[in-house]
Amino acid sequence: MELTSWLALAAICVMGAISPGPSLALIIRNTVQGGQGHGVATALGHGFGVGIYALITALGLAILITQTPLLFDVIRYGGAAFLAWLGVKALLAKPAKGEAREEVHQLRGRQGAFEGFMVAFLNPQLAVFFIALFSQFVHADTGWREGGIMMLTAGGIDAVWYVLVALVLSRGPVLAWLKAKSFVIDKVSGLVLLGLALKVVL
């Protein structure tokens, strides 16, 4: 891939990453509830999910998903169900209490990585987005090398952006203020996630 093409691809991936959506709501909530480690793990899991989708698209498999209505619907409704589950979980969440044990943080890290990955991987809009985007860069002879470049570009940019978001939210008075408002944030993010789940279905 030529440098100019890669720069164009990276620029579009940056715009896609910073646009608000269920991913941002999840990163904010997990950072507030579980601290920096939980937020960073969620960000890395999300970036990995985005990267996998990018690789699938680059190799032409996402086209199969969009052209097979049953498979596409399974992914779409699976994503909506997962967003709805996260929304209900946020609405029912109780104010966070201090948990200092290391194993608790490790469990939260794994949970955050899983949630971040699933929010990305069960989002069929990613398939549509990458098909529209990669149609400008993918050719008939695109193989694993260029597919890997696209995967690392899209997934890496996404992960870096959300890691930065988690790090900013977990520093100084910002996190203290967010923790004080965690009950409100849970309710708002829960409603946002439920609304996005409904939007996916409709």
Automatic annotation (TrEMBL):
InterPro entries, sorted: LeuE-type
Protein name: Lysine transporter LysE
Transmembrane regions: 6-28, 40-68, 113-137, 149-170
Pfam families: LysE
Molecular-function annotations in GO: amino acid transmembrane transporter activity
Signal peptide interval: none
CC terms in the record's Gene Ontology section: plasma membrane
PANTHER family associated with the record: AMINO ACID EFFLUX PERMEASE RHTB FAMILY, ARGININE EXPORTER PROTEIN ARGO
Assigned keywords, A-Z: Cell membrane, Membrane, Transmembrane, Transmembrane helix
Membrane topology: Multi-pass membrane protein
Localization (cell): Cell membrane
